[in-house]
Amino acid sequence: MNAWEILGIEPGSDRRAIKKAYARLARDCHPEERPEAFMELRQAYEVALEQLAGAEPGIMEVPPAGVEPMPVYPSESEPVPEWEPEYEDGAQTNDHVSASPVFDSRAVETLCDDLASFVRRPLDEQSPEELEAILGHPLLEHMEVRDWVGLRLLTPFCVEIHEASFKQCPFSRNTLLALDRVFHWSANYQMMPGLPVDDFHVLLDGAYESQHSANQRYGWKWLANLLLGFKGSITRREWLLGFVCMILWVITTLNILQGIINLVPPQPYHSLLFLGVGLVGLYSFICLTIKRAVDAGVNRLGALIMATLFPFVIPLYIVGAPQQRADVPDPRLQFMDHLDLAYWDVRDQLPQSGFMQKVKQFYRRLSGRVFGKLGIVFVVGLALTPWVN
């Protein structure tokens, strides 16, 4: 069986692609209506994860042979079983002597309701402090309670994922990571008929990737490649930032050169210095514009020729809409949060960020040292201008 062909993805795809493909195909393969097709799809899914686990040490998504699977709970349209196994109402303490501890079932139900109510709130009302207080409940120290509450909590989670606005994930990264730390969803994958658990695990992967990349910042190396590199593609905001940096550098350098020239006797090579600064600035402008044209789907050589013959097309390159091309990665993705990307994958939507949200995401990715030193360059350039004149 070729698992990758059944899933319809390229061999060696990552876990998000595998889970997304499985979640998409599973919607058309109900286990009761098409059991054989569902079994084939499930086997392909497990084989793909096993092959990925073999290629990447430390990754294990499929339970090993001999491990008894967790009990399957009914779909969201059917009631989840009430709290029943060896638990009694009214018990206030645990019996540490007996094999089966006794808990207050009403307290467990209240705890589950509190968590379900928390995940149904709007994103701006999900207080991390309140969540930590709920997760610090003594009942969650016991594995039986923790497993049962974790399974019950999956239903409101999956409902919120598909009923919330597709513009923004209904859960923050900290909320998902805090809950996964307690209930261990990512380490204990469990199929639940009727619930899109695969989509939920895609979000968990996105939350961990978001945490991993939270400290990644674009600094001087990125800025130097932005101004002087000829390959790749950039966003409109990158072009604007690069253009402003280019202007600041040209003004500051010319002022410094002019100040030095005023202190020394005239030399024949002075004009060459100014010409060199101007050529470097022009080269930077060409690099920025050509990369912006590539993002708009224009060939580099064609963009250069057209810009030389018809300069009025340069603004069209700068504001051109990005085109999806297999050989050119989308430059916007580097400034987007992985959790948002995972949520848009789950909802089968293209990035839906608003203008201000895009600006904030772009700003958060840039190193503070870049802005600090650019500010110094700007101040130096302004300070030298009246002295030169």
UniProtKB/TrEMBL annotation:
Segments for region (Disordered): 73-93
Residues annotated as domain J: 2-53
Pfam families according to UniProt: DnaJ (PF00226)
Acidic residues biased stretches: 79-89
PROSITE patterns the record matches: DNAJ_2
Stated name of the protein: J domain-containing protein
Transmembrane segments: 239-257, 269-289, 301-320, 370-388
Superkingdom per UniProt: Bacteria
